[in-house]
Amino acid sequence: MKDVIDTYRDVVVQIGTPYSVGTGFYLRSHNLVITNEHVVRENKEVTIDGRNFKKRLSKILYTDQKADLAFLEVPEEFKQLMPEVAFFEGESVGQGEPVVAIGHPYGYDYSATQGIVSNSAHEEHGMEYIIHDAALNPGNIGGPLVNASGHILGVNTFIVKNGNNVGFSLPSDFLSQSLAEFESRGRVPSAKCTSCSNIVAEQEIEPDQNYCPHCGSHIDLPSRAEGYEATGVSRTIEDFIRLIGHDVPLSRMGPDHWIIKQGSATIKIYYNDREGMIFGDAFLCSLPKTNIAPVYQFMLKQNYELEGLSFSVPANSREIVLSLFIPDRYLNDMTGKEMFERLFERADYYDNV
Description:
This protein is α+β, with helices and mostly antiparallel strands. It is 22% helix and 35% strand. It is built from eight helices and 19 strands. The strands form three sheets. Strands 1-2-3-6-5-4 form a six-stranded antiparallel barrel. A six-stranded antiparallel beta barrel has the order 7-8-9-12-11-10. Strands 15-16-17-19-18 form a five-stranded antiparallel sheet. The longest helix is centred in the last third of the chain and has 17 residues, at 336-352. The protein is globular. It starts with a helix and ends with a helix. The model has no long low-confidence stretch (mean pLDDT 90).
């Protein structure tokens, strides 16, 4: 399985929205990223990040709410960056067959969990699924379910709450059919109607309407999503990120969570509205195993001289972190931009040190 997992590290992508994070995977044969519809819901575009490319915005091209399936647009250059992976083409998936689910659970990048297939053709709400016990958690939903030969068996879609690792994956044959149907319509922004199952393209509906032209049911086209607008403290934080010169939509990674790259440093910003605190953390490096005292002396000296920032090593960790803490009641136009600017600049400086 190690070679299979290594290959999929270059195929699996992390997806970020203002509402959630999830996983997707790239299909070179179709030049699309595949994920779940609920991961990208209420967005026109999302961020995608992978090992072979820099984080970028990706437009949502197709959604199927009933099957919980979505396709994302990527540039042609991805075909040179990413390896080819293929669907399983056997007659049926064997019960007891070993499988692996690959994704980003809880933000842990490129994690893989193994299990076995317990039911290869379970029907639920009119859809057929593969049931398996490879652990699925928030963050790796939308990723691929893969067999020992490296073939895609399905898309990891949902779990049974308190079900002791009972996961459901949409089979690859359904995905293959959906891709063919989408591409036969010209790969234009579209959605599948939950009532009549017809694919409806954006140009088939008047700009001020959201009703299926075939059956009259309400339909949500991804191209007409209202998009996200931050409010309150989150909006103030985003204003500062923008003023400093960073791309705000590209920085969003879930509710009240932003990740900014400044030079060689990566800074994570969180807003906890319950505590009324804004946290900015740059994870710079790890403590060495020897000659630790000079490193602590350096950090203590810097803490004495730094204004509004502090070095720390969290309990039971070796990571050196440069942090900023701001109570939201003290965040204002006079100090906010300056404090964030200092964090970004110092994080890049100390990362190099």
